[in-house]
Design a protein that fits this description.
alpha+beta; 4 helices; globular; 23% strand
């Protein structure tokens, strides 16, 4: 959300950020979109690289890398695209919904070390597919 707010503030009025959290069938959807400049499709894969940032100040470039790691560890998926309504970037996370108490047990059963993803649900479309085809992470999971 912090990245979206900063991007919207750097953009032209009206400056907006949209946050959606919704349960859908067997998934939890968390979507953050902004009215900023958006993300160059060629750079989508870089967003999840620890230390990569569009900001000039030190101390940035870890947030989305950590989000991706958490999403992967929980069998989810993360997509980045241009938001058609606001015009900036949109980051969408989908996490599987477990029954009461199953999440902790499933994590203990499957293990999974640092960097291991259990998702692999496809690369998405548009700019996301292009980034995935080039080895990027337009859709990571």
């Amino acid at each position: 959300i912090d990245n979206a707010v900063e991007a919207a503030l750097r953009g032209s009025p009206p400056r907006r950020v949209s946050v959606t959290i919704r349960a859908e069938a067997q998934e939890l959807l968390v979507r953050v979109a902004d009215s900023g400049a958006g993300i160059d499709p060629e750079r989508i894969g870089d967003l999840f690289t620890r230390g990569w940032t569009t900001k000039n100040e030190a101390g940035h470039g870890i947030g989305l890398a950590l989000v991706r790691q958490a999403v992967n560890r929980n069998g989810g998926r993360i997509d980045v695209a241009c938001d058609e309504e606001l015009g900036g970037a949109a980051v969408e996370v989908r996490l599987p919904v477990c029954g009461r108490g199953e999440g902790a047990r499933a994590g203990a059963r499957t293990g999974g070390g640092e960097g291991e993803g259990r998702g692999g649900r496809g690369a998405g479309t548009g700019a996301r597919a292009g980034a995935a085809a080039r080895g990027g992470l337009g859709s990571a999971g």
